[in-house]
Specification:
The complex is a heterotrimer.
Chain A (H helix, E strand, L loop, with lengths): L1 H16 L6 H18 L4 H22 L9 H23 L15 E4 L2 E4 H23 L1 H11 L1 H6 L4 H23 L9 H16 L4 H21 L4 H15 L8
Antiparallel strand pairs in A: 1-2
Helix pairs in contact in A: 1-8, 1-9, 1-10, 2-3, 2-4, 2-8, 2-9, 3-8, 5-6, 9-10, 9-11, 10-11
Chain B lengths: L1 H20 L2 H27 L6 H18 L3 H23 L4 H21 L1 H4 L5 E2 L6 E3 L3 E3 L4 H23 L2 H11 L1 H6 L4 H27 L1 E2 L6 H14 L6 H19 L3 H15 L4 H15 L1
Antiparallel strand pairs in B: 1-4, 2-3
Helix pairs in contact in B: 2-7, 2-10, 2-11, 2-12, 3-4, 3-5, 3-10, 4-10, 8-10, 11-12
Chain C lengths: L1 H30 L10 E7 L6 H20 L8 E7 L4 H15 L3 E4 L3 H14 L3 E3 L5 H10 L5 E3 L6 H10 L7 E7 L2 H17 L4 E8 L7 H8 L5 E4 L3 H13 L2 H4 L2 E4 L5 H6 L1 H5 L7 E3 L11 H14 L5 H20 L4 H8 L3 E4 L2 E5 L6 E2 L4 E5 L8 E6 L3 H4 L13
Parallel strand pairs in C: 1-2, 1-3, 3-4, 4-5, 6-7, 6-8, 8-9, 9-10
Antiparallel strand pairs in C: 10-14, 11-12, 12-13, 14-15
Helix pairs in contact in C: 2-14, 3-4, 6-7, 14-15
Classes of the chains: A mainly alpha, B mainly alpha, C alpha/beta.
């Protein structure tokens, strides 16, 4: 589900802005650090901390989009990748300067502790909470895209940017809002993960390639595909380890290659 | 014109004389620069001349490095190791190339990324062959020998430097010929207008595959320089972050010039080595330079120099 | 004509390329002057991971060694010469480690080297040390092969290790847990690389010898940097083990223990052995849970040094000074690097020289008092022998963080492997 939140933003940005953002994983990391700071250091309520973390990362997203990303919309793919790769390095080191290199984990909110049993195996409440959060995001995204004016603008400009511009859609503003939204999705993933995962420099980089795989499997720019892709990769990584312990990383990329060769537009591509 | 040939000769002379006045570490860095130059030049045949961005070159680099390491561990012959490493990189590229060149643009990049990462996970997991996370260790810097003709000891850094330098210069020259042969022109044609070339009755796929294979040979060659130098090969050399290196230096130097990747390699090591000395936060500086580069010097240092600095100097 | 133009273009480019290379190397020439060897400071080159997920381990190394150097310099240095340190980022990449060592020795002019976090880096560095001919004291990299293969068999005498070898995490827990007759079914959740294989294999081997009745019911391998352990935990718990032995360390270790808590593992087992769980970063990560007694006293851990052992004036002084200087507790990397500097000091004073051969002779067989207790450098494989206890993770009123209590000390000299070394099976 963390992967889904990360991949959703990645694919959204690619679909609408046409940029493949390597630094997207950094927003995941920043979200985790921000939530950690509000929750653990400042003692703010868990949900409020998550909300504040989304706001902060959203602000960073605006700055990033306005001052840097905007300049590279029209240039070649290699430059986009390298620019955003440069930002991974910058964000990783910034985080280390501010918070130090120690891996940190804040406590779990007490109402989400504990576990229940499915088929005799214990299952933590928190994982259930994460699944519901992921599903909720999926539903909200679907509603936003299908039922709102903003969603229609996004879909219009994703399919034909010039046409969208011609009918009076303010493309720069739309792009900024989409980018903020995507950054916040990544931050949400990072923030939700803090009580069970670890907050450390480089956690975003570790996940970005998996997110790439997901977006490719699902089809670049395709949200529904990203959701299914996240499920596939999630299941492969957690159960693949037990079934084929030697080649779990290998298997993921095999799946990606097969999809690329057979149906490059992704499982849910048009 | 004469001046330029003279300069080129002077440069080569300078590089040949380097061991006489440079320290050990300088030679070591120079070898790394040669290695990265060869690696990046091959990569640029794909990016700059054919318009394909590969994000999996480290995979072929690793194939070359592991193959040459395996040879050196069995028979200590430097030449054999280098040849086998180069061939292994090229053949791997030829095989995987069949699949990769089916796509262009982002899909091509993603395919190469996944093959590169597959090679990485193989290097990591196939312990019997690759030594797993420990890699292959204790690789000798074997002497350069052709039975009955030649026997050169390589244990000193200076000797090995000459070996790498000479092979690199040959490789660079060969690539220069390739780029300016009809093949190179066809590749550029494909990059600029696929349809026009297709109308001329040329199989685009075969040409792309050829370019991909040549890039694989160069990655394999660069990889085969590594084991004798470091005495060890480990999985991180196949990781995608290592694939980003040729991308970075090529963009740094400029993709549309032949010498771009070489200049980029020199600057890459220079910048990184200098930053690392002064701060433990070297990533942030390096990242900032990369960002600056994309925003300001797009097109690369070489073009920036030829079109901005050089004319300005002449006017002065 | 076309050919001509392109050639001119090439040459033009070549000229520029040449200019760049020329000026680049030229500036190298200036900055890369060979270090002068006079009566200047004694130069100590260090490296460790100071970026990425394990950046704190490298930080602890710089903190420990910096403190030692400040202490020594404030008392006049060694043989009247000050100590100077340069610490570089190993990035956990063997190639970078080799490059750093080459730079430190041949260009910066290091007289002695120390540090290194990753075993892979250490193994890659070993043969290069023979070429560079500098003593290197390894402070963290733990593969037994570093001392057994490279020192004892291949005779690279420049290598010394001040920290413990990997198999301690297998043998020590087995020797301690044999005293719990009610624990009969062991399971493992381990690192999917050499450290995990060696620790689990030596654990099983030792345990079988001392407790033939024990069974090993289940094992799950988790690759480096796993985030979600729920499937590993579920798979292992399905076999209903009495106890779990795990090598997941640092941040991953904290994640694993806490995820195990949320899955109710500690209600169903009798003991959990966390290798290297006595490191302060892990103790800090589970401090709240320990305080609330969520582990019910079932969490055991080992380390490579723990700040509450031994109870000696040396150790107390070290910990107090460290907290005063850095505002944090030292972990084992801080202690091993701090002690490394003192080993270097002792060696230089004994050898009255910086020549590598004399330093090696001085360190071989050296006995030295360090915060972690008395260390003895075995001449046969250059491994430092010192006692590190295992114990139960508990809350103590004397410390803000959890500590290891109920300490069980087993003399290291009794269980460390001796030559001739038989290979440990380093596979699953």
């Amino acid at each position: 589900m963390y992967l889904w939140l990360l991949a959703a933003g990645l694919t959204l940005v690619f679909g609408v802005l046409g940029v493949l953002n390597f630094a997207h994983g950094s927003f995941f990391m920043l979200g985790a650090y921000a939530a950690f700071t509000f929750y653990e250091k400042l003692g703010i309520n868990f949900f409020l901390s998550i909300f504040l973390s989304l706001v902060s990362v959203g602000i960073i997203g605006v700055i990033f989009e306005r001052f840097f990303l905007r300049k590279i919309y029209d240039i070649d793919l290699p430059y986009q990748l390298i620019l955003t790769f440069g930002f991974i390095l910058i964000f990783d080191d910034l985080v280390k300067m501010i918070w130090g290199g120690v891996a940190m984990i804040p406590p779990m909110p007490s109402f989400l502790e504990g576990n229940f049993s499915i088929l005799g195996r214990p299952y933590p409440f928190y994982n259930l909470f994460i699944i519901f959060a992921g599903l909720a995001v999926a539903i909200v995204l679907w509603l936003l895209l299908e039922k709102t004016w903003w969603g229609r603008m996004i879909r219009a400009s994703a399919s034909d940017r010039e046409m969208a511009s011609a009918i009076g859609i303010n493309i720069p503003v739309l792009f900024t809002t989409v980018f903020i939204f995507a950054a916040m999705l990544a931050a949400l993933g990072g923030a939700l993960g803090t009580p069970v995962r670890v907050v450390a420099p480089g956690i975003g980089t570790a996940m970005i390639i998996q997110a790439f795989v997901i977006t490719v499997i699902g089809g670049l720019g395709n949200l529904k595909g990203a959701f299914v892709g996240a499920l596939i990769v999630g299941i492969l990584t957690s159960y693949g380890i037990l079934l084929f312990p030697i080649f779990e990383l290998f298997i993921i990329f095999v799946v990606m290659v097969i999809v690329l060769l057979v149906k490059p537009e992704g499982l849910f591509g048009k | 014109m004469k001046l330029r040939i003279l300069f080129l000769a002077a440069l080569i002379l300078f590089l040949l004389l380097l061991p006489f006045f440079g320290g050990k570490y300088l030679l070591y860095m120079a070898i790394h620069i040669c290695l990265l130059s060869v690696f990046a030049l091959g990569f640029n045949l794909l990016l700059g001349y054919t318009g394909l961005l590969s994000f999996g070159q480290a995979g072929f680099f690793a194939v070359g490095a592991y193959a040459s390491a395996k040879i050196l561990l069995v028979t200590p012959s430097l030449l054999l190791g280098t040849i086998v490493g180069t061939l292994a990189g090229g053949i791997a590229a030829l095989i995987l190339g069949f699949l990769c060149i089916r796509h262009t643009r982002i899909y091509f990049s993603m395919l190469t990324l996944s093959f590169g990462m597959m090679i990485y996970s193989l290097a990591w997991k196939w312990r019997e062959v690759t030594g797993g996370d420990d890699g292959l260790v204790g690789i000798p810097r074997a002497p350069l020998q052709i039975p009955g003709i030649l026997h050169l000891d390589m244990s000193s850094m200076g000797h090995y430097y000459y070996f790498v330098l000479v092979i690199s210069i040959i490789a660079i020259f060969v690539l220069y010929r390739i780029v300016h042969s009809p093949l190179g022109l066809t590749l550029k044609g494909i990059r600029d207008s696929e349809n026009r070339v297709a109308f001329a009755g040329i199989s685009i796929r075969n040409y792309r595959l050829l370019a991909f294979t040549i890039a694989g040979f160069y990655a394999g060659l660069a990889g085969s320089f590594l084991p004798p130098l470091e005495n060890t090969v480990t999985p991180p050399i196949a990781h995608w972050t290592h694939s980003a290196e040729p991308v970075m230096v090529t963009l740094l130097g400029g993709i549309h010039t032949f010498s771009g990747p070489i200049v980029g390699s020199v600057l890459f090591y220079l910048i990184k080595d200098i930053i690392v000395r002064y701060t433990q936060y070297w990533l942030i500086w390096f990242g900032s330079i990369v960002v600056l580069l994309v925003l300001v010097f797009r097109g690369g240092i070489v073009i920036f120099f030829t079109e901005k600095i050089w004319p300005w100097l002449i006017r002065k | 004509m076309a050919k001509n133009i392109s050639r001119r273009k090439f040459l033009k480019n070549a000229v520029i390329g040449g200019a760049a290379i020329g000026s680049g190397l030229g500036s190298y020439r200036i900055t890369y002057g060979q270090a002068k060897k006079a009566a200047g400071p004694i130069k100590i080159g260090g490296q460790g991971a100071i970026s990425g997920a394990h950046a704190d381990y490298g930080w602890q190394m710089t903190a420990g060694s910096t403190m030692a150097i400040e202490e020594i310099n404030s008392k006049g240095g060694v043989l009247g010469r000050k100590l100077e340190m340069k610490f570089m980022d190993e990035e956990l990449k063997p190639a970078t480690a080799v490059k750093n060592a080459r730079y430190l020795v041949t260009d910066w002019g290091a007289d002695v080297l120390f540090g290194v976090d990753s075993s892979g880096s250490a193994m890659a560095l070993g043969p290069v040390l023979a070429e560079l001919n500098r003593v290197h004291i390894f402070c963290h990299a733990a593969t037994h092969r570093l001392t057994e293969e490279l020192v004892a068999q291949r005779r690279i005498p420049q290598i010394f290790r001040i920290s413990v070898p990997t198999y301690q995490d297998g043998i020590l827990p087995a020797l301690i847990m044999e005293d719990f007759p009610e624990i009969k079914r062991w399971a493992g959740i381990h690192e999917d690389y050499e450290y995990g294989y060696v620790a689990w294999n030596t654990f099983k081997e030792t345990m079988k010898k001392v407790r033939p009745d024990v069974e090993f019911v289940s094992i799950a391998w988790a690759p480096f940097w796993t985030m979600d352990f729920s499937s590993h935990i579920a798979a292992v718990m399905a076999e209903k083990p009495d106890a779990i032995h795990t090598t997941k360390w640092a941040g991953e270790g904290v994640m694993l223990i806490r995820q195990a808590l949320t899955m109710g593992v500690f209600d169903n087992i009798k003991a959990w052995w966390q290798c290297m769980g006595g490191s302060v970063d892990v103790l800090q990560g589970i401090a709240r849970e320990v305080e609330a007694d969520k582990f019910k006293g079932k969490l055991w851990a080992s380390a490579r040094y723990i700040h509450n052992y031994p109870v000696t004036p040396e150790n107390r002084a070290f910990v107090e000074k460290f907290i005063k200087r850095w505002g944090r507790y030292p972990n084992y990397s801080a202690e091993t690097s701090y002690s490394s500097i003192y080993v270097i000091k002792a060696a230089v004073e004994k050898a009255k020289s910086l020549e590598t051969e004399k330093l090696i002779a001085a360190i071989e067989g050296m006995e030295i008092m360090t915060p972690a207790g008395k260390r003895y450098f075995r001449p046969e494989d250059h491994q430092a022998v010192y006692n590190v206890p295992g114990g139960r993770v508990i809350k103590s009123p004397d410390y803000p963080l959890p500590i290891l209590g109920d300490l069980r000390v087993i003399p290291a000299k009794d269980y460390y492997r001796h030559p001739p070394f038989t290979p440990i099976s380093a596979t699953k």
